[in-house]
Amino acid sequence: MIPQYLVDFDLRELPTVETDCIVIGSGIAGLFTAIKASEDRRVILITKKSLMDSNTRYAQGGIAAVIAEDDSPLYHRQDTLMAGAGICSSSSVDVLVNEGPEGVRELIRLGTLFDQEDGVLALTQEGAHSHRRILHANGDATGYEIVRALAKQVLEHHNIEVWDDHFVIDLITDDGECVGALVQKPHGERLFLKGDATILCSGGAGQLYRYTTNPEVATGDGVAIAYRAGAHIRDMEFIQFHPTALSYPGAPRFLISEAVRGEGAVLRNIKGERFMEKYHELLELAPRDVVARAIVSEMEETKSTFVYLDITHESADMVKHRFPTIYKTCIGYGLDITSDWIPVAPAAHYMMGGIKTDLNGESSIPRLFACGEVSSTGVHGANRLASNSLSEAIVFGGRIVERVRSLPKLKKTDISAGCDLGRQEHPTQAMVERRLKLQKIMVRYVGLRRNEEMLVKGLEELNRQLPIFGGALTKREDYEFANMLICSLLVTESALAREESRGAHYREDFPQRDDEHWRKHLLQIRELGIVEETSDDV
């Protein structure tokens, strides 16, 4: 079994720092939640790199909210439920679509400059949305603008202390409650950070896969440390692969936003043929999982490693104005998207599952909260609707802070948690090699298409890495690999257990959606394994 703690320690021998609220992660969820909590609480915000390193920074498309007069929360709700393929929590979706517009207004109050047209907020449309409801900033740099505005507020706030380059190794629990975290400082010293509330906002796990739109920091840390602490983890089989990441020699898997297809771009195979009409009536605006699998099918059929995205029929001025970041990035690699077709292929993009929370963002462990991609609020179901992730972080971040305000202070008792397994340092394969091997296993066996034989093989390969938990882990890359291994096991085990195809989870040996047997969730609990969860709400 996975151990509760990654390292040996004794809290009585470590320095203790106390605060009201611990926020772990610096994407939109972490920054926004820290700002709201700091109105009447002392906050320590921890980021393992820096404030500007997060998935939010790379979010291009925008943030979804009902702003237009011809739109309504009911339409937004219908679109979200349809994308979620039957297992969204309707109560969570209701919260999102009704509270999202106020969340956007709060972002504007905090200094976010969304694009405008003729003095009103500019709205665009993305795949599987029935109305134009996507707000964007600087064309296709929405995430960067939100992080810029919120980071400025964080750095100027007297109630927020930012710890850059710190790593949360594990959560500390006492009498069933989360009381804080074991933290490693930049030079290796460790401390116990104690807080009345601990909020995980640590993002996703795109780095489980060799090809991902996520930055290097997205190693699934939050899910893994919550799992070790005993929290309920839900729906980990649902990994969303973005259909259109740049696939070009020498270039990173840079995201080519869904909004490009929303503005009329079409997909072509390497023969130049449009192909989406073979796969879905919504063509290029079909749900992401459908488009991603269609692209893989075309790549296999034409023996190619990519397909093309073509927006050359639009005016060059429109393309440059609407997608300046994509245009500049591609031109840097010799691709002019106003006249060249863009070579693209699917890449791991978003984790629908995560730490199960209630409508106030609280996990199964009292005083432990989760917000953003690390959480499983029930909003996304089996497949996230485009641009709902930023909205979710704002809406549930605000709810978490309201709940934190109702918590009593921690009792002033000594906490003597510790772990002594006698772990010894011993020569091991370099972590960078282990990480690459894990990523290749996940791509090969637990990718866009799955079957029992592949998943069993993947599980066997991953299990061979388990002995690392018996050795002494000391550095950030050690902890990250341990967390990636745990998340990979969770994804693979739940993908093997779900014998159907639904949303982003596709089983070749069970190609149909099976509502009679599988309209339910899979929970993973460290001491119990996989537990099926049925709910009237799905």
UniProtKB/TrEMBL annotation:
Its EC number is 1.4.3.16. Residues 20-390 form the FAD-dependent oxidoreductase 2 FAD-binding domain. The active site is at R288. GO terms for biological process: 'de novo' NAD+ biosynthetic process from L-aspartate. Transmembrane segments: none annotated. Pathway: Cofactor biosynthesis; NAD(+) biosynthesis; iminoaspartate from L-aspartate (oxidase route): step 1/1. Residues 479-524 form the Fumarate reductase/succinate dehydrogenase flavoprotein-like C-terminal domain. Signal peptide: none annotated. It catalyses: L-aspartate + O2 = iminosuccinate + H2O2. Pfam families: FAD_binding_2 (PF00890), Succ_DH_flav_C (PF02910). One of its GO terms (cellular component) is cytoplasm. Keywords: FAD, Flavoprotein, Oxidoreductase, Pyridine nucleotide biosynthesis. GO terms for molecular function: L-aspartate oxidase activity; steroid dehydrogenase activity, acting on the CH-CH group of donors. It is found in: Cytoplasm. Its cofactor is FAD. InterPro entries: FAD-dep_OxRdtase_2_FAD-bd, FAD/NAD-bd_sf, Fum_R/Succ_DH_flav-like_C_sf, Fum_Rdtase/Succ_DH_flav-like_C, NadB, Succ_DH/fumarate_Rdtase_cat_sf. The keyword Oxidoreductase applies. Catalyzes the oxidation of L-aspartate to iminoaspartate. Belongs to the FAD-dependent oxidoreductase 2 family. NadB subfamily. This is L-aspartate oxidase. The gene is nadB.
